[in-house]
Amino acid sequence: MKAFLLLALPFAIPAAAGVPECRVASDARRAPLVELYTSEGCDSCPPADRWFARLPVGPGAAIPLAFHVDYWDSLGWKDRFASPEWSERQRARVRAGGGRIVYTPQVLLDGRDLKWHSGTAFAESLGRARSKPPGATLRLRMARRGDALEVEVESALAPGVTAPADLHVAITQGALATEVRAGENKGERLAHEHVVRTVEKMGAVGVTARTLSYGRPFAPGWRAEDLAVVAWVQDRESAEVLQAVRLAMCPAG
Question: CA dist 106 to 14, 44, 178, 223, Å?
């Protein structure tokens, strides 16, 4: 069963008896993405992983995405969540934010380094990011269909915004743990939340609301109840995230 994408559909997943559905809409404030770049092969990463797992994810909070990079994989332990795509994303996000240094654990807010060790600095940075007017609106709806996840996203640029922008959708998973048997973290049991399993660029966003439908089967190792869907609109030229929403998996019906 392959992923599918349908364009210009009404914002309505067909109802089915016993199928749980849930939805979320963006509000009048911007919800920024907080991105953690980490690796199970990095002995300085577990404290950042634990901090990231405790981040609030409700209204008024940032939206967390944990990307496991692969450039530690040759040093004794292969991270099962790592991807060269996430390593390249880290490099691109740092470049877009005007930075030069890529490392782990690295936390980015609006593409710029975040002093995650300091609760005060994080709160101040989050407040500044939230104070920006949203550059887009989003509505996200999700449903479980047997062995697959179906998602619909309606997006539009905010009035007065004309920059070229794209819609992105990610699936994240929590409640993950690994018994590390080699490398710098040998003997440690590492727990992870908000781990990005897949990201799809869904297409251009314009001033007129557009609805996209997206379906994906549950891959091996994906526990449906631990998944969440994150959607965001990103400026194609500056890489600025104009608005984002997150929706955790509905309880099983």
Answer: 41, 10, 20, 27
The β-bridge relationship of strands 33-38 and 63-68 is parallel
188 touches 46 (CB < 8 A): yes
Contact predicate 3/76, CB 8 Å: no
* Overall pTM surpassing 0.70 (yes/no): yes
Report how far residue 36's alpha carbon sits from residue 210's, in angstroms, rounded to the nearest whole number: 30
Backbone φ and ψ of 38, nearest 5°: -145, 175
Helix (H) or strand (E) holding 217: strand 210-217
> Count of CB atoms within 10 A of residue 198's CB?
15
Can you give the CATH number for the domain in which 36 is found? 2.60.40.2060
Q: Which two tokens stand for residue 161?
A: 């915004």
The total of structural domains in the chain comes to 1
Summarised one tens digit per residue, pLDDT across range 10-38 is 344 444 444 556 999 999 999 999 999 99
d(CA 102, CA 147): 38
Range of the domain at 202: 4-248
